[in-house]
Design brief:
Oligomer: single chain
Radius of gyration: 19 Å
Strand order of the largest sheet: 2-3-1-4
Number of strands: 9
Largest sheet: 4 strands, antiparallel
């Protein structure tokens, strides 16, 4: 299928999870240049490729189903373009599928899901705390940026649970993303007393 705006799904794993969002954008630009793909550029003094990531990943978090949209100067075959990008991607960056989208369309994330392995000796306590938070009508957190405020994040919590993931047990957050924002994984980990698991 031909299109001049393509939406790619990709995974960022392994040591590449330590790549910042800004560095990921520069990596994408280098890939496009090496692949000799005719991408559109922004206007202004510092033009760059017209690349839009639906959501930026927190540093250190692996992404398994991320979205990026790229605009091109002419219609390209989506499958061929996917194949070319795959050939230029570094280890840890895997393009999984592609779709043609209208030029005026923009990907808007509606949900974010996080998964974190939990030691067996803490599963019961963490699962119970998840149930407690979901039963609360309001869940308050303190945010310092951009301005200090107290925020109820309960409307953003779709589900939280501990589930089997292979031989391990994993804490899973399923969060709504809305026009007013979303909950943050670090906030929930603090509320569940599992921040140390990141270490």
């Amino acid at each position: 299928m031909l299109g001049d705006k393509l939406r790619f799904r990709f995974a960022k794993t392994g040591t590449l999870r330590l790549l910042s969002h800004h560095d990921l954008m520069r990596c994408a630009e280098r890939m496009l240049r090496r692949a000799a793909l005719p991408f559109k550029s922004t206007a202004g003094f510092h033009p760059g490729p017209r690349i839009v990531f639906a959501q930026s990943l927190p540093l250190g978090v692996a992404g398994l189903d991320e979205v990026v949209e790229i605009e091109f100067l002419k219609e390209l075959d989506a499958d061929e373009t996917l194949s070319v990008l795959r050939s230029q991607a570094p280890d840890g960056l895997t393009f999984t599928r592609v779709a043609v989208v209208p030029l005026k369309a923009t990907a808007v994330p509606r949900r974010i899901a996080y998964r974190l392995e939990v030691p067996h000796d803490r599963v019961e306590v963490v699962a119970a705390r998840c149930a407690e938070l979901l039963a609360e009508p309001k869940v308050w957190v303190e945010r310092l940026k951009p301005n200090p405020k107290r925020l109820n994040i309960r409307p953003y919590l779709r589900n939280m649970s501990v589930a089997a993931c292979g031989l391990a047990q994993s804490l899973e957050f399923d969060l709504w993303v809305t026009g007013t924002g979303t909950a943050r994984a670090d906030e929930l980990m603090k509320l569940l007393n599992v921040s140390d698991l990141i270490d």
